């Protein structure tokens, strides 16, 4: 039973005659009972027609009976007649085809033909959803016209005037209906907020001109110089603002009231499913001196066949079925620099993932998949994190410290006691002008950095190993060779001879993120190096070159 009152009867009659659908009639009667909109559409239409055709109790029984005989049958009965086998059935069907379209003059069919179970079936992996709806701008014009009709009818019946804000919006009614259908079909709740959004858009080219009238007839609050720009100008909000400035008389002169009946149904423009990004974090080791962190492209030509970024993200994109990604890390190493120790923290933002729920075991299996895909890198502590947590990786980045191991060459022959003084240097302040090698992608500036400690190990008369712990962001290569005097002081100044760096390893990145994930029992005791670099395996020439300062061991 619909929650309609006696005062609603003239409104229902007027809107039925105007060509409004049953659900739009409920909206203009301010029915906020959601279950009423979810009723079967034909049953709802019949109930409204019966309500409209029932006279007040003051009418005599005979008159009521006579009036009832003149009432046209509801849609269900008419369908039965059209399917009937009497000899007049053909004429009835032909007559029905000639009648005006039964597409709603206000919602243009949105609340009639896009609220069934078949429309609600949209397969996607999620545990809840939020529904957003985009409607044609001209629906606001047609609704305004229907509201003026209702307003006129209520003034004739001398009842309280209906405010436009009291009318239930098409979008709200549509969500009431579809939320229930989606929940039933997919078994997930439809909420006001969710990580997964289903966006439904409609269009109705036949009535696009309804809103275009504003540009010339109603002093539309935009300067429209070209007809080709109309589509972008007439947004729903722009039309709503224009309607607020239009007088009732001006509107009636330029637009029919009630609206003209459409001949075509509102068309579904698109259904977009969008999941909020999922963030995956971890730490990576890089064991190759010929692997860049990100794809290396110079003048449109690719220089390296792969990169750390691609080796990590390819399995993630496949597993999460994401449409794209953004890769970030705590600093970066050059292509010829390895990252050892606990690795470098990184985070991957996976865009619109079709699959977003993974157990801890599944994430670990994903980590193993990455590690087995290449011997050049290894990932650890892989985990799903929040967007806010990713910010910890960048917070106070320059205040963090990093440890390095470098193989140094000296032009002048040295003895062991020539480098011992380096061990005593603490918190050496240096000034680094943007290096020439990165000047094409970084602004020119002088950056103050600190070399906290150094430890030198003699190798031969022209080589020694230098371990450094520095402020994050320090250019180690430039500190060693001076970069034509752009870094002061540098190792050349300290050693009183020309020096250069032959090999460099990152030994630790002191960022306490992401949290450590304990290794499974089967993985404990394994080195951070690939299998072919384990200590119990005889080293090959390639292995020697891959060891820290391996060429001198």
Question: Percent of residues in beta strands?
Answer: 15-25%
* Gap between N and C termini: 90 Å
Q: Decide which structural class fits the backbone.
A: alpha+beta
- Mean pLDDT over the residues: 81
Low-confidence stretches: 56-100, 216-232, 527-548
Q: What's the gyration radius in Å?
A: 37 Å
General shape: elongated
Tally of contiguous helical segments: 22
| Helix percent band | 25-40%
Major sheet details: 10 strands, mixed
- Beta-strand segment tally: 15
Keywords, separated by commas or semicolons:
10-stranded mixed sheet, Pus10_N_euk, 3-stranded mixed sheet, 553 residues
How does this model look, in words?
This protein has 553 residues and is of the alpha+beta class. It is built from 22 helices and 15 strands. Strands 4, 7, 8, 9, 10, 11, 12, 13, 14 and 15 form a 10-stranded mixed beta sheet that branches. The chain has a 3-stranded mixed beta sheet with strand order 1-2-3, with helices on one face. A hairpin with a 2-residue loop joins strand 12 (446-460) and strand 13. The longest helix has 19 residues, at 138-156. The chain starts with 8 loop residues before the first helix and ends in a 7-residue tail after the last helix. Residues 512-553 are annotated as: Disordered. Belongs to the pseudouridine synthase Pus10 family. Residues 104-273 form the Pus10 N-terminal eukaryotes domain.
